[in-house]
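As a warm-up, study this chain.
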Amino acid sequence: MKTLKQKQLEFLEETIKHFNLRNLGIKNSNCSYEAGCAIGRHIKDKNLCKRLDNLYNSSVDKYNVFGSLPKNLRFLTKSFLIAVQKLHDSAPNWNAEGLSEKGKRRVHNIKLDFDL
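Now compare it with the structure written out below.
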């Protein structure tokens, strides 16, 4: 069984591999769970994604958002998911190929913060 840190690192690395400036999961100029944001991509229940997108503030730091995520995502911890969401949501962290230099520094800080 994988440890929390292993799962966090795997989630972070998969996020980095998947995204670039052209595919950030944006819908109507906003990050969207349904369109496939960093966290939404891992939610199989697309009705849940729609419900989260319809909230006034659907940030994962909100109790009602974090609490409605599947158990495998909640296991990663709220603080970790907030860090990944902030990485994903900031366009300057990305370029056409993937992470920008700013994004690489942010990932380095996430790894330090979570001892990954």
